[in-house]
Write a structure and sequence with these properties.
The complex is a heterodimer of chains A (161) and B (226). Chain A has 161 residues and is mostly helical. Chain A is built from six helices and three strands, in the order E-H-H-H-E-H-H-H-E. The longest helix of chain A has 33 residues. Classes of the chains: A mainly alpha (161), B mainly alpha (226).
């Protein structure tokens, strides 16, 4: 016996309440952005760990008899970390302007007009934020709460919830 | 007079016996006596039957006339002590024996019970019954102890029932709603706290750097500082 799908009442806003995100014009400060950045850092580490586990499993499947765990430094190197971070950040910002960390904290990266950042800008911003992460601290000092990357690429991080 | 007649008859009998005992004439006298007795018997029988027939006809006629002329019911009601009569009748009748002879099942089968029930105002009946009092007298524990729940449960398709119920309830939707609202609440808390912290840090820095009105630079447009 299968229950008939209930006809949903016609809602004026088709978007679910929890998903109805609206950008505000206020630029986010250091605490929100710091926490978001920390969450993103954790996620990058998790991606690296998952890749390591996946590779180990693959190796185990291929060479069961002479299996030993991979050396950790095959992935957890500066290069590996930077590459993963850049990929991850650029993809997130280019697609929606929001990394998972930003989603949690209710932030969004926008360009000077308030629209979504262009892919090239997203990649450049990802590289800057990864290589020169300390540039985020400038948010504290700057009057318009801009990080170094924001100043260079004319982007902003606004509250979006 | 009757004594005299009796004495005469007895005397006649003695004489007759003596005559019958006489030689020669005795058998002839006995034959005459026997024939006389037979004739008398036949005459008595005929007279009795005739009298009975005539009397029956007369009585029937009289009763017909009586019932036509007199209202017997009235007569009975006025003159008969019915209560005493019924009491006497009831004493005579063994009611238990009568009841035993009645086939109640057949009688009940012939009664249209639903029609009878329709005639009764059940609400009024229920109003007269003190149900609370009745309920107090019921020993529910004893009843519950007699119920074999296991046997009942054994007959119920619990798994099928549960599946039917679960089919009717949109569980995923409920879970989604609940978790969404909880998550949304937590997120809102975290976000507004961090926003307040942002503002606090900015204010502290502004005070430290002796800047004024720095908050206005945070938004590019005026008055949209929600």
């Amino acid at each position: 016996m299968t229950a008939e799908p209930k006809p949903r009442p016609a809602e004026p806003h088709a978007v679910h309440r929890a998903h109805a995100v609206q950008d505000r014009d206020k630029t986010a400060g250091i605490v929100s952005r710091g926490i978001a950045a920390f969450l993103d850092l954790l996620i990058v580490w998790m991606i690296l760990g998952a890749c390591y586990a996946g590779l180990s499993l693959l190796k185990f499947a291929l060479t069961v008899s002479e299996f030993h765990f991979l050396h950790v430094d095959i992935l957890f190197t500066t290069t590996g970390f930077v590459a993963t971070s850049v990929l991850y950040l650029a993809a997130c910002w280019g697609v929606s302007g929001r990394t998972p960390g930003s989603v949690v904290m209710g932030l969004r990266v926008v360009d000077s007009t308030g629209g979504r950042v262009r892919p090239l800008v997203a990649v450049l911003r990802a590289v800057l934020c990864t290589v020169f992460a300390i540039g985020l601290v400038w948010v504290v000092v700057d009057r318009r709460r801009r990080s170094v990357a924001d100043i260079l690429l004319r982007t902003r991080v606004v509250y979006s919830r | 007079m009757s004594r005299l007649a009796g004495e005469s008859l007895r005397f006649a009998g003695v004489i007759l016996e003596a005559a019958e005992a006489a030689p020669l004439l005795g058998p002839a006298i006995r034959a005459v006596r026997v024939r006389t007795v037979e004739a008398a018997d036949a005459a008595r029988l005929w007279a009795g039957a005739t009298v009975r027939t005539v009397l029956g006809a007369v009585i029937r006629e009289v009763v017909d006339v009586l019932t036509e002329e007199v209202d017997l019911t009235d007569l009975v009601l006025q003159n008969v002590d019915l209560e005493r009569l019924i009491a006497a009748v009831l004493e005579v009748i063994d009611l238990d024996a009568v009841i035993e002879t009645v086939d109640l099942d057949r009688a009940v089968a012939q009664v249209d019970l639903m029609r009878a029930i329709d005639l009764v105002d059940l609400h009024e009946v229920i109003g007269k019954v003190d149900l609370d009092e009745v309920a107090k007298r019921i020993d529910l524990d004893a009843i519950a102890a007699r119920i074999a729940i296991d046997a009942i449960l054994g007959r119920v398709d619990l798994v099928g029932l549960a599946e039917e119920i679960i089919d009717g309830v949109d569980l995923p939707d409920i879970i989604r709603e609940a978790s969404t609202s909880v998550t949304a609440d937590v997120m809102t808390d975290v976000r507004s706290s961090s926003e307040r912290a942002d503002d606090a840090v900015a204010n502290a820095v502004n005070r430290f750097l002796r800047r004024r009105g720095a908050g206005a630079d945070v938004s590019t447009r005026d008055g949209v500082d929600g």
